[in-house]
Amino acid sequence: MLAELLLVLWTLAKVLAIVLPLVIAVAMFVYWERKVIGWMHVRMGPNQIGPLGLMQAFADVAKLLLKEIVVPTNANRFLFFLAPMLALVPALAAWAVIPFSDGLVLANINAGVLYLLAMTSMGVYGIILAGWASNSRYALLGAMRSAAQVVSYELAMGLALVCVLVLAGSLNLSDIVTAQSGGLLHWFWLPLLPMAVVYFISGVAETNRAPFDVAEGESEIVAGFHVEYSGSAFALFFLAEYANMILVAFLTSILFLGGWLSPFPATWGLIGHGSFFWLLAKAFVVAFLFLWFRASFPRYRYDQIMRLGWKVFIPIALVWVLVAGLLKYFHIVAPGA
Amino acid sequence: MSIELLAFYFFAFFAVLGALLVISLRNPVHAVLSLVLTFFSMASIWMLLRAEFLALVLIVVYVGAVMVLFLFVVMMLDIKVAAAREGFIRYLPVGIGVAAVMLAEMVALLGVRAMHVAPPPSAAVMGGQANVVWIGRALYTEYLLPFELAAMILTVGIVAAVALTLRRRPGVRHQDAARQVAVSAHERVRLVSMPAERGGNGAQP
User: Fold this and answer.
1) What residues make up the domain containing B135?
2) Which residue among A24, A225, B168, B194 sits deepest, i.e. has the most Cβ atoms within 10 Å of its Cβ?
3) Please, what's the b/e burial string for A10-47 (b: 16 or more CB within 10 A of its CB; e: otherwise)?
């Protein structure tokens, strides 16, 4: 009993070791986003608080936590406060199966990819309930758009994952990474190039980010599902959205860009060996794409989003499932050691 | 008492609580959410039984997709709670009858299971394979035909649902994305080169 209790405490410590850096990463990512978009707009971005404006994100967090939470008239109080938590919990829980390096993973479960799909599909409840419980038209419209979008793009995302699973022959994320070992050309981005693109764009749509941010759509529905939220309740939505973005960046790196593996041959010494820093570097580049998209593209119209998901991505993905099967069957792509 | 047993009681409590709330809550949205809680707790219990594939598929399919759509339908409907309660007493005998039959069936099933000397070890454990691997092998080798038939039936169901609800209205304007993309500038705009007009009592430069 005592040993089991210790195991639970030890696991809790590991959970904290993931969640705390993640929350700090979210804060710094928000700062980085504002800086990058500022530069792309030929502005300075935040530069007042702390050196180079680095403390801006923490100042914003303090402001949000100190602000009053206003509950709209006739809102469903219980669901109104439950919704932000329902949005945040799956966003954090999904990190349990992310392998940060060889063997460095909280839960090395065999059905890791399925677990990820399950957790990301849970996140939509927070958004729907926020929209409904707010007792506001804009919020409800935003929630409807978001739910339709998330459910549609989940299909394309799932089919892209199927291609990875076919080539790797495993649902375990650590095994998927080791199946890509053997250098840059053995990573799955090459045989599954269309799927890598489909997966990442679906990830952008799943996280309701620009150019697919019709769920928030400031110019049409004010701020969508979280229009009535303020203070710390809004902060939770914000945290969930950014945690999900970083998650998609890590997943794209793990599934298609070789995870912690190094692109250089092993004879190159320190940089030739796989490590957590390689994963971090890849995820950083992918996460940068989110910001680049946001600064570059105008928002998609709602029907265009649906057309892209159903009429473009799903057919491409269906064909590529077949291609992946053939690649595997004729041993054109063999999983690495 | 091991942690596993504690976890079982925890999840089982919430599964039963959720199921009770589904049929007792007045607000239909709350009832749907209680059903989600029940599904989630049951998935956790299956996880404890090491049926991780079934547990996760239950969450992906039912919690992630089916219940989301269900929740939407319930949110959009203007359900009169009083009207729904109207026939409660009238239908009560039927309900009790159905519940009694189900209870009897469950007890009978438990009794039959209890008569077996020992439950046979599950095939997944016997093969020494992970649950997911074993289900995959079984579905695509041993049970390939039933699996494909089920897939066919589901596809037919989707096509039938679309065909039943599809109404072609005449005179509806559609967008053709391919044609829009294929348009080139000279089809839309004609640039005419002409000498600048001058003189007369026209506009001053």
Assistant:
1) 121-166
2) A225
3) eeeeebeebeeebeebbbebbbbbbbbbbeeeeeebbe
